[in-house]
Design a protein that fits this description.
This protein is about 65% helix and about 0% strand. It is built from six helices and no strands. Helix 2 packs across helix 4.
């Protein structure tokens, strides 16, 4: 996350603002509710804040927090699924050499038949 929001490109600069504003909001909200920082409150209290901002709400006081949560979640999920653990979870093996290639199935041949015929192949 640090690397992403530190990059000098327009999308990352926009994300930096969203993420920093959201983190500031979360810390302020923890202070308002429990007079402690987000890091200092217990897991149950953290979950209450996250649950509030995760809901699609029309409460204008949560607009910054909701925008933050949506973008942060997108970035975290994207980051996770580009790690070895994330690849494993989705069964992605990456670019690995194969000893042989499986033959084209009848279903695949049927799908390819028309476009290849149109090309004269």
């Amino acid at each position: 996350m640090n690397e992403w929001v530190s990059a000098p490109y327009p999308e990352q600069i926009d994300d930096r603002t969203i993420i920093f504003d959201g983190l500031r909001w979360i810390d302020t909200e923890a202070g308002r509710r429990w007079r402690r920082s987000f890091i200092e409150i217990d897991d149950e209290s953290r979950q209450k804040i996250v649950a509030d901002i995760a809901r699609k709400t029309v409460d204008p006081t949560l607009a910054t927090a909701s925008k933050f949560f949506q973008r942060f979640r997108f970035l975290v999920v994207g980051a996770y699924y580009t790690t070895p653990e994330g690849f494993k979870d989705i069964g992605y093996t990456g670019n690995v050499p194969l000893k042989s290639f499986p033959p084209v199935t009848d279903e695949e041949s049927a799908i390819l038949e028309k476009p290849l015929s149109a090309l004269g192949l």
